[in-house]
Design brief:
By secondary structure, the chain is an all-alpha fold. The chain is built from 13 helices and no strands.
């Protein structure tokens, strides 16, 4: 988790300076599902690999970016987002430079997807069906590409089935993520960060599965918090007391909700 936080800070510092970087990490740590970062889930590992992969892209270190995207793909299937971000950035750079790019750029772009492919094949090997085993495991979790039909169906039946705050909070987090993604695009954020966040958000919106888990899937999408971090950095300079009060409230809500998720919630985390 500390390596992930350091990577997030490094990206924020490179783009907008130390204050925004600090707020970016602070917001990431105060997300409603941040309790997952202290549990036996793969999100912290994925976030660490993805953050440093994206930082390597920003620095032009393509082989390093590809290798870290490979590790992100090995950590969990949504790690494909890091590979897509590296490949998209490499292609953009190649077009911008009219093909006059170092061989390391293509090596990095080729390395990234190998992690996700290895993950899928490993799951298939464990199930005894190399090519289709991964899809069978996802079907057991009722997770499949349905272009949003599953989440919309859940929303329709949420009032009678909702026995706690898990589903409403999930809806709030997903909706806020869509808004933040739009702000991220308008803010002229570097392409790899936009692509990485966009792919993760697309996977959440277009793939069915336990809706209460979707905020957890969005935890690695830290670039979505950049607009909010910049706003808090500006507010910090003008109204420190109010900003501290706001962040303290967010942290308290996150702490209480995290305790509820870990100890009381009947819904999948």
């Amino acid at each position: 988790m500390l390596i992930a936080a350091y990577g997030i800070h490094a990206i924020g510092h490179r783009l907008h300076g130390r204050t925004v970087a600090a707020w970016l990490v602070a917001l990431w740590a105060a997300l409603p599902h941040s309790v997952v970062l202290s549990l036996a889930y793969t999100e912290p590992l994925f976030t660490a690999c993805a953050a440093w992969s994206l930082y390597a892209v920003l620095k032009g270190r393509w082989p390093t970016a590809g290798a870290l995207a490979l590790l992100a793909g090995l950590s969990r299937p949504s790690g494909i987002a890091a590979a897509v971000a590296v490949t998209a950035a490499a292609l953009h750079e190649a077009v911008r430079q009219r093909g006059r790019v170092p061989a390391g750029l293509w090596a990095g772009a080729a390395l990234g997807p190998l992690g996700w492919a290895g993950y899928v094949l490993w799951v298939g090997a464990q199930t005894g069906d190399l090519l289709h085993g991964y899809l069978r495991v996802q079907s057991a979790w009722k997770s499949q590409l349905d272009l949003g039909a599953g989440p919309l169906h859940m929303l329709r039946w949420m009032p009678p089935q909702g026995s706690g705050p898990a589903y409403p909070m999930a809806v709030l987090v997903v909706t806020a993520s869509v808004v933040l993604f739009c702000l991220l695009c308008l803010d002229r954020t570097p392409l790899p960060l936009v692509v990485f966040s966009g792919v993760l958000l697309l996977l959440v919106l277009a793939v069915s599965g336990p809706f209460s888990s979707k905020p957890r899937f969005l935890l690695p999408a830290f670039p979505l918090l950049l607009p909010a971090a910049r706003a808090l950095a500006a507010a910090w300079r003008a109204h420190r007391h109010r900003t501290c009060l706001l962040y303290g409230t967010l942290t308290t809500v996150s702490l209480l909700y995290g305790a509820y998720l870990a100890a009381l919630s009947p819904q999948p985390l």
